[in-house]
Amino acid sequence: MGFEMYSFRNHSDDRRCGRWGGSITSGALALLVAALWPVQSVQAGWTDPLDTPAETASLANQALVLDVARRGDNLVAVGAYGNILLSDKAGLQWQQASVPVRVTLTSVAFVDENHGWACGHDGVILATADGGASWLRQFDGFLANKAVVAAAEQQLADAEASLAELEDNGDDTTDAEALVESANFALDDARYDLQSGSTRPCLDIQFQDLNTGMAVGAYGSLFITHNGGQTWEEASSRINNPDRFHLNFVRAISANEWWLGGESGLLFRSSDAGEHWEAVESPYEGSLFDLNRAGDYRILAGLRGHLFRLDDSGEWQEIDHEGDQTFNASTSLDDGSLLLVGNGGALLHLGTDGSVQDEKTLAGSKSMAAVAVVNNGYLVAGEGGLVLVNPQGETTDARMMPVQESAHAAQ
Amino acid sequence: MQPNNQRYSEPEHFLISPESEPFLERLLFGRRHVVMALLVLITLVFMFGLTRIRLDSSIEKYIPLQHPFVQSYLKHKDDLKGGVASVRIAVAARNGSIFEASYLQTLNKITDDVFFIAGVDRSALQSLWTPNTRWTEVTEEGFQGGPVIPPDYDGSAASVETVRENVLKSGQVGRLVANDFGSSIIDVPLLAVNAETGEKLDYQQLSHLLEAQVRDRYQNEQIAIYITGVPKKLGDLMDGAVAIGYFFLAAMLMTTALLYWYSRCWRGTLVPVLASLIAVVWQLGALALLGFSIDLYSVLVPFLVFAIGISHAVQVINSIALHAGVGENSLWAARKAFRGLYVPGMLALLSDAMGFLTLLFIDIGVIQELAISASVGVAMIIITNLVLLPVVMSWVGISPRGVEHARRGAATIPALWRVLSGFADRRLALPVLIASLVLAVVGYQYSKGLKIGDLDPGAPELRADSRYNLDNDYMVEHFSTSSDILVVMVETPIEMCNSFKVMDVMDRFMWHMKNVPGVQSGVSLVSVSKLVTKAMNEGNIKWFALSRNQTILNTSVQRAPGSLLNGNCSMAPVVLYLNDHKAETLERVVAEVQQFKARFDDQVDDVFFGMRPDDIQSAIASGKLESVPVRFQLAAGNAGIEAATNEVIGDAQNRMLIFVYLVVFALCLLTFRSLPAVSCILIPLALTSILSQALMTWLGIGVKVATLPVIALGVGIGVDYGIYIYNRLEAMLIDGKNLREAYLETLCSTGKAVSFTGVTLAIGVATWIFSPIRFQADMGILLTFMFIWNMLGALILLPALTSILLRPEHIRQRHQRIHGEIPPAI
């Protein structure tokens, strides 16, 4: 699917309407009148959130923030209401970027100082080439729905073809019939979504370089690009997820080590940037939210604080610790150790040896969705907006740059 | 008829033609017995009316019912459950933690007791002990939840610990449980009617029940009780209104003492007091018979009626004593006093009444009732103190001692009068005028800082250190919910309040408003939907958003509290919690809502708002609509109602001031038929109006329901002094005296009465300053100030103005032209 500016609904033709006379209250009669009345009503106000720029808000730093990424030395954060916020490496003062949508953004990824992508609800994917100052919509849930329908149709055709082939050969068709059936279901669902206009939230986006990136999300959606997001390929059939569980994260540890995880212990690994995925047996049957690296270990975070480390032998070991809050995100520190943040203010530091160095609950017990290292301590983001935490664990709210300064800085 | 009576005509006024005057006088004094019998009969009827008086505590009377905000609120009143009528009881553990078996046991008992208080909406009652307070948790198996107090709770340390854990999982910290875990709240929604009696719930009685059965019974060394909520506040206010009775008694006693000191005659003291009390009886009786009830504002009217009554009675008694002093018998002293005073007296009282009636411009029930009851009361004074009083005095007369006192008083001219009379001289007048001008300019500049609305936190009707406001402070300090709530009602077609477009525009609205300074937070169906959508997705905060999938949206609001949407889902309120209810906060927030409304309200015919989803969908399909129509309606919640009240007050403020001056101007012009004369009377009043606004600014008293009437009352009553003084002064000028002499004469007779009146009136209203009800105290301060300043204005500024504006020879010529050589009545 090629890049296109997709306008969901045209609102440019605002026509004035006359007020109706009379006081007809009966629904049926009213409808009749409505049907016969030649003039259209004026409803200029509301535009679809995908077509509406994010509101400039003085409290954007206090709204829900769901991801933070590095862009070169500097930081970028995304969250509710289409808010995208930029700051230098200190993370103390933030200014709002101009964003063409006002849907909740859940994830952001940068490959260098200038090039980044963000994704969020309604399956929207945004891209920037100027360090986050301005963003362009590359993809959205409605385009995604079409792509899903097309892929589902293809899959059904393939399944039917292979069934026919098996029937022709007189082979056992049980599996093939099941495949056709599930392809039929998938197509029905995809068509329902397309018709009803419901969309699938994107939950995580990751790029390994300027060209190759992946976006995963609700109901098993998986999109891959090899051209910097100009086209997004529907790739959910590459993983075995017949129940279409949510995919919560996608992580590129390196170009040939991609991970993907989600509900019900779904865990996959790819060594060819998403062309093929192999299922990895999960040490935990609950949902998985994050995978990262601590030293040479791979650390896997699941629901209710379950943490596992994978060593060279390929064995998962559960990491014993106190809290039972879900960890949502993590960031690698300079020394190779890992800092995890999660619900209810949970914060945990894992050493390079995969052992717990520190565990605490931040003041306010707010849930956190992202963490980044800043000059003196780290920046956490979540329910409480953007909050700076010093090495002693004391918190201060990050600030918005005054408007004049923001405007100046934007120039 | 004695021959010398023919000599007198009325002074230079035209309200009643000279010919009618002897007729009125003859009518009243010729058949004294009949008049007296009639007046006694009327008094008996009104005394019967007194038995019908009742105190009214309905909230509706205090709000501007015609304001569009209030209209919208009333339209959705039944759907905004618990919006107004709910009481919150905080039960605090003095040792600092609610997680103690003894505390939880007490809380349980209180919850049970409150449950059985009549008028409590038992199904919606909420505390830690009620089954509707639940915790939820996400586990591998999905949702888990249960009541915060587990079914197997046994008071053991382990089960108390379970309660603690459940509270943390319940999301009630800051709402039902204090942020510091030192107290928890029993939320008590009330029904509109007392289910046991079927009558409207009596808030005063409820307030007493809560005090007796909750605070008195459970507050001790371990437990502290705090109670807030509009019904409780109204109950406390009603209690405060009862205290007003004692102030009335105090004012009456002080006035009586002063009056005796003034007249040195018991007859001349008790008859005016009695006549004024009868005016009060007539006023209250008449209103009760008209079906009015007493409220927190009209409870003050008897003071005014009594004080105004006394002030006019003093003029009458003063005049009778003076006439008796020159040898008239009781009857003729009374008749002559009547003849000389009934025109200025009636004019003054009519100005009062008309001034009060201008309060009708304020579209708020209590103020309009205040206007009516005060004007009725003042009209009653015309009969009781200008007719009944002289008629009674024509029998009883002034005692010889009183007559002697008056004669001696008239014979000697106090030094003060000599000094004051100097103001009628241009040499002294000029500095007075300049000083007044400076005061006016400075006062005007200063009064630009005058604010509309309530300026203090808490319940502004009560004092900052009142029990209620202390309780309210505790709530604000320990819980996260503000007590200042603005509710915006979002109207949609039937069953469409949770359609995606509506929810999205509400979400947008809430975020927009959240960024407006003064808005703390907001709650609506959108908040619930996001929360539940998140919870349905394993508590993953990336799902804290609205879903575009209508099935998910429906599920997410399935268990939303009934207060966040109405029965057929055609209205969903957005509740905004504000920092305070200062007028500027309200104005800013309301202006933002209006702007948003202007942008996002769908200008479609009302008919669409009565439609069902299928019809709306086909209207959209056929292009009649672009999307589900939605509109934002201001406003409910205490802040919403207050914003409406402020708007009404702001609109009425200048209109009322203009009208009250127009009325007084017209009446004075009609009587004195001279613009310079009217200017002399009105300019001192205007100075007082300006200075009282400056005083309000200085004292931090805003223009509000309680203080706006004061402006009208102050002008209406204040004009009396000017009228009496000017009336007398003019008569003296016609008599041939020069200005200074004429003014000295005026001071010796009327001036004495005016200064006495100013002091009496001021004392009457000054007692209000001690009222437990804040706005009554504010009114007391302002009225005391206005009465004193009006008196000073009439005694100092008025003569100074006359020395510049009046031409005594013109007055004399005109009088001659009309009445020939007949001198005016004195």
UniProtKB/TrEMBL annotation, chain B:
UniProt keywords, alphabetically: Cell membrane, Membrane, Transmembrane, Transmembrane helix
Cell location: Cell membrane
Main location: membrane
Membrane topology designation: Multi-pass membrane protein
Annotated transmembrane regions: 33-51, 241-263, 269-292, 299-321, 341-362, 374-398, 428-446, 658-686, 706-726, 747-770, 782-806
Pfam families (alphabetical): MMPL
Ribosomal protein is among the record's keywords: no
An example Gene Ontology CC term for this record: plasma membrane
Entry-linked PANTHER family: MEMBRANE PROTEIN MJ1562-RELATED, SSD DOMAIN-CONTAINING PROTEIN
Protein name (Swiss-Prot/TrEMBL): MMPL family transporter
Source organism per UniProt: Parathalassolituus penaei
